[in-house]
Amino acid sequence: MVKAVVGANWGDEGKGKITDMMADQADVVIRFQGGANAGHTIVNEYGKFALHTLPSGVFHQHITNIIGNGVALNIPVLMKELGNVIEQKVPTPNLLISDRCQIVMPYHILFDQYEEERLGGKSFGSTKSGIAPFYSDKYAKIGFQVNELFDEELLKEKVERVLVTKNILLKELYHKPEIDPAELLETLHEWRDMVKPYVADTSLFLDKAIKENKTILLEGQLGTMKDPDHGIYPMVTSSSTLAAYGAIGAGIAPYEIKQIVVVNKAYSSAVGAGAFTSEIFGDEADELRRRGGDGGEYGATTGRPRRMGWYDCVASKYGCRLQGATDVAFTVLDVLGYLDEIPVCVGYEIDGKVTKDFPVTHLLEKAKPVYETLPGWKSDIRGIKKYEDLPENCRKYIEFIEKEIGYPITMVSNGPAREDIIYRESALSK
Ligand code: GDP
Fold it and tell me: 149 falls in which pLDDT band (50, 70, 90)?
C-alpha cells in the first residue's frame, strides 16, 4: 500500500514528524520532489536532526530510503547529511538513489545566486540552492541524470556542450568567471564515486515492493501553496508539491496511492515572499514565533525567522483539496495553549466581496482576512493521549476547523516527539 505525507500550506507544517511517526510501519520511504532547499526537523531517540535531502525513514533499520527521480539531487549535501546521521550514532541507513534522478550541478547554485543578485529587490526570495536553475535545465533537456555519470564518453561530450551556453551567460550577463569543462568533469567523477553504491532502478524496486504488499511512504516537501501550478505563482517552488506528483517523482502508478495524509498546522507560517493573507505582525507575531514549533519558528535550512499568521481555513481547504486529503494531520496544536482567544481566518474579502474559495495570485494580493474568534483553552495539552481528554475549547477549535475545511482531521499532534499524537475518529472519513 502506498501512502503520501504532504503539506497543506506553505511548508513547515510538521511533515517530518508525521513521516517519522508513520515510518514505524513503513518498509520504504521515498522523497519524490524538491531538493536541499527545505528541510524537515525530526526529534527522536538519537537527537534532533534537520534533514534536507535524506528521506525521513533513515532512522529505522528496516526501511529502504529512496531518493526518487523527481528530486533535485545535491550529491555533496546528501553525502554530508548521511555522514552527520552516522556520526550521531544512527545505524547506517539503507539508501537507494534513482538512476533517473537528476543532479544539481555546481553552476545551478551559482546561477541561483547570480540571478537573485541581478534581480535585487525584485528577487523571489530563493534559498539559493540551485533549485530553479536545476528544474529549468531539466525541462530544457540539458540536465544530467545520475546514470549518465557512468558513461564517460557521453558525460564529456555533454559537459562541453552544456558549458558553451552556461559560460556565455556567466561572462556576458553576470560578469562572472567561466567554468572549465575539465574541472567540472573532475568534480562529476568524484560525485560518481560517491553515489555509486546507492544507484538503482528504483521504479522497478517499487514495482516489486508493491506486488509484495509492502507499505510505501511518499514524503513531500513544502506544501500546496508552493506548487508551481496550483500555488501562489510565481512565489512557488520549481517542482510539484502535490501527492499526485508522487506517482511521477517515484515512478509508480497513480492509482497505487491509497492514503494521502495532509499535514496542516494549527496556525500559519511561511517563508519567502508572496501573499500571506492571515499574516500577523509585531509583538503578536513575535510571541507566536518564539513559542512555535519546537524551539521557535525559524527555517530548518536557512535559520530565517518565519512569517507568522493565524490559521487560514480558505488556504487550508484549498490545500487539502488539491492534495486529495484522505486524512488531515493537525499539528503543533500545543503551541496555542497560551492564548485567551484565537482568531481563525474563515474568508477572504476581495474587492468588497467575501469568498471562501482560494483565488488566483493577482486577486490573492488584494485579499483581506475575515476572522472569527474562538476561545482559547489556556492550558498545556502535551502528554494527553486521548481525544476526549483534550480541553473542551481545544476540541471545539479542531471541530470548527474540520467543518470549515471539510476534510477529516484524524490525527492531532500535541508535541514534537513521535509519540505525541492523538488519533481521532472523524465523521468525514470515507
Ligand atoms: P516540515 O518541513 O513540514 O517537516 O516542518 P518542520 O521541520 O519545520 O517542523 C516544524 C517544527 O515543529 C519542527 O521543529 C518540529 O519538531 C515541530 N513539531 C512538529 N509537530 C509538533 C507538535 O505537534 N508540537 C510542537 N510543539 N512542535 C511540533
Answer: very high
For 20, 147, 209, 297, 309, the CA distances from 305, given in Å and listed in that order, are 24, 39, 41, 6, 13
Told to judge if 12 belongs to the known catalytic residues of this protein, a careful annotator would answer yes
Strand partners, 298: 305
In degrees and rounded to multiples of 5, residue 9 shows phi and psi of -125, -115
Cα of 416 from ligand 1 centre, angstroms: 6
pLDDT grade for 23, boundaries at 50, 70 and 90: confident
Ligand 1 atom at minimum distance from 335 CA: 26
Residue whose C-alpha is closest to residue 244's, from 265, 218, 222: 218
Protein residue closest via CA to atom 6 of ligand 1 = 12
State yes or no: pLDDT of 419 exceeds 80.
Answer: yes
What are the cell numbers at 305?
A: 525567522
Average pLDDT over residues 291-317: 89
| 40 in catalytic set | yes
Q: Which of 145, 171, 196 is the last residue of a domain?
A: 196
C-alpha 65 – ligand 1 centre gap (Å): 21
Same domain assignment for residues 290 and 335: yes
User: Are 214 and 189 contained in the same domain?
Assistant: no
pLDDT in tens, 91-100: 999 999 999 9
Sheet containing 307-309: give its strands across. 268-270, 307-309, 279-280
CATH of the domain at 270: 3.90.170.10
* Active-site hit among 40, 52, 108, 230: 40
CA of 81 to the centre of ligand 1 (A): 19
pLDDT confidence bin for 391, thresholds 50/70/90: very high
218 and 124, same domain (yes or no) = no
pLDDT exceeds cutoff 70 at 126: no
Residue 353 CA, distance from chain mean position: 33
Whole-number Å distance, alpha carbon 18 to ligand 1 midpoint, is 9
Residues 148 and 268 grouped into a single domain: no
Query: Residues 403, 312: one domain?
Result: yes
Same structural domain for residues 227 and 174?
no
Measured from the Cα of 39, ligand 1's closest atom is 2
> pLDDT by residue (tens digit) across 170-196?
999 999 999 999 999 999 999 999 999
Q: Is the CB of 34 under 6 A from ligand 1?
A: no
CB of residue 251 inside a 6 A radius of ligand 1: no
For ligand 1, whether the C-beta of 17 sits within 6 Å is: yes
| Domain limits for position 309 | 2-74+205-429
